[in-house]
Write a structure and sequence with these properties.
Helices cover 54% and strands 14% of the residues. With 218 residues, it is α+β, with helices and mostly antiparallel strands.
């Protein structure tokens, strides 16, 4: 018997561990495909909601935020790349260079969920992660966002209208406030059936065990 689970994947495109976590979650779901079926919803979370236009140098940002040295950041990035390889995600060979505001990308992800076809939000989320984390593209650029939308065969004109009119801004902020008010302060945060929280970019076997246990309870 297959158990249906609702999964809210709270994350930010600017978060490399979110790419790792998503890859591991998908691996876990593949392992459990005869036991669990998942209805995944990507929920917005901005690590840097006040990031100005043009972004900030990544080393400078991480140094200011965490006090990390260039050597420490380089080692951490090697660790992240290795974890990415484990789940089939290829990070940029030398890093992203700059960190950007991701609010417009979150608006398009919301658009994909409410106006797109089944699976569109997942495809767009993965494509945005690949554009930013994998290729180091400027994810605040409307041209980059629309290029990703076009590459997936989604409605580029409708996406352009969303970006031009600030559509879904209130919806995204409402969701962000909901999750931060609920105690989510770091991502990825994976919430199963509105009750069970799995925090961080866990390995696939950790996700698999948790999902199997939750499915058994359900």
């Amino acid at each position: 018997m297959t158990t249906q689970l609702k999964i809210d994947f709270v994350s930010d495109i600017a978060c490399p561990w979110c790419a790792v976590g998503l890859g591991a979650l998908e691996q876990a779901l593949h392992t459990l495909q005869t036991e669990v079926q998942a209805d995944i919803h990507f929920q917005p979370f901005e690590l840097n909601p006040q990031m100005p236009a043009g972004g900030q140098d990544l080393f400078e940002h991480l140094n200011q935020k965490y006090g990390s040295s260039a050597e420490q950041q380089a080692q951490m990035y090697q660790n992240i790349k290795a974890r990415g390889e484990e789940v089939g995600f290829a990070f940029h060979p030398t890093g992203r260079g700059r960190i950007f505001n991701t609010f417009d990308a979150h608006r398009l992800l919301h658009w994909a969920e409410v106006e797109g076809a089944a699976g569109d939000q997942l495809r767009l989320k993965k494509a945005f992660l690949e554009a930013y984390q994998g290729r180091g593209e400027n994810i605040e650029s409307h041209a980059v966002l629309l290029s990703v939308v076009k590459s997936l065969g989604m409605d580029e004109v409708a996406a352009q209208a969303v970006l031009d009119d600030n559509t879904y801004a209130d919806d995204v902020r409402t969701k962000e406030n909901f999750y931060t008010s609920a105690g989510i302060h770091s991502v990825p945060a994976v919430i199963i059936n509105d009750r069970h929280l799995i925090s961080g970019g866990q390995p696939a076997h950790v996700f698999a065990k948790a999902l199997r246990d939750i499915a058994a309870q359900a």
